[in-house]
């Protein structure tokens, strides 16, 4: 078990992702991800966290580059899709246009753009069956069981006193990691 190291969460006395459990935060949460490190964390549960060392994914590395750019702004959905789309040879301007409304929960606080971006990546690679989509959503829900909608996700984050951008960035990286894992298992990427 790890104590929460984020100042705002420690001040509030609770983990922003698991508010019922005090002072505990999963190492793979958006608040604990080391944005410059080269590791991935495997989520077990808040009381049994494991960490495995591995090189950072080229898709996550590219998404981090995109999210660091101020102008033009890459919303969460665009940042999740573009690293894969670039590798497929899809034009950047096309991806920017078709994912323009993904940010802010489809501009309405609905489904998180990062979550939508991950499922779009699967579809771009031909993984578009209901079973695949259900598996993807289930894996995202393991980390965010209360909702996959932008508005409640951001509300919980704000209640915990945390900043929006690191939280959204972390969701982008989580969704990329899940999509990438599913694509590898399906033999769609190397």
Can you walk through the features of this model?
- With about 190 residues, the chain is mainly alpha-helical.
- It folds into two domains: about 5-55, no CATH class; about 60-185, no CATH class.
- The chain is built from nine helices and two strands, in the order H-E-E-H-H-H-H-H-H-H-H.
- The chain has helices at about 5-10, 60-70, 75-90, 90-100, 105-110, 115-125, 130-145, 150-160, 165-185; strands at about 40-45, 50-55.
- Strands 1-2 form a two-stranded antiparallel sheet.
- Strand 1 (about 40-45) and strand 2 form a beta hairpin.
- Helix 3 runs parallel beside helix 6 (about 115-125).
- The protein is globular and about 40 Å long.
Q: Radius of gyration over alpha carbons?
A: 16 Å
Give the CA-based shape. globular
Uncertain stretches: 1-53
**CA(first)-CA(last) distance:** 34 Å
Determine the mean pLDDT. Answer: 81
Give the tally of β-strands. Answer: 2
Main β-sheet, in a few words?
Answer: 2 strands, antiparallel
| Helical amount | 40-55%
Oligomeric status of the shown chains?
A: single chain
Residue fraction in strands: 5-15%
- The number of helical segments is 9
Question: Which strand order spans the largest sheet, edge to edge or round the barrel?
Answer: 1-2
Structural class: mainly alpha
Could you spell the SSE succession in H and E letters?
Answer: HEEHHHHHHHH
């Amino acid at each position: 078990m790890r104590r929460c190291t984020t100042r705002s969460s420690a001040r509030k006395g609770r983990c922003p992702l698991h508010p019922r459990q005090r002072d505990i935060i999963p190492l793979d949460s958006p608040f604990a991800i080391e944005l410059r490190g080269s590791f991935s964390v495997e989520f077990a549960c808040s009381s049994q966290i494991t960490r495995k060392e591995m090189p950072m994914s080229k898709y996550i590395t590219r998404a981090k580059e995109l999210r660091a750019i101020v102008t033009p702004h890459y919303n969460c959905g665009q940042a999740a899709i573009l690293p894969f789309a670039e590798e497929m040879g899809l034009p950047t301007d096309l991806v920017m246009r078709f994912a323009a409304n993904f940010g802010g929960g489809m501009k309405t606080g609905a489904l998180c753009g990062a979550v939508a971006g991950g499922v779009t990546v699967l579809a771009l690679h031909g993984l578009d069956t209901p079973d695949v989509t259900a598996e993807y959503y289930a894996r995202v829900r393991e980390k965010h069981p209360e909702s996959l909608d932008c508005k409640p996700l951001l509300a919980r984050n704000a209640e915990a006193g945390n900043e929006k951008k690191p939280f959204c960035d972390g969701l982008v990286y989580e969704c990329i990691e899940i999509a990438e894992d599913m694509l590898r298992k399906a033999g769609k990427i190397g």
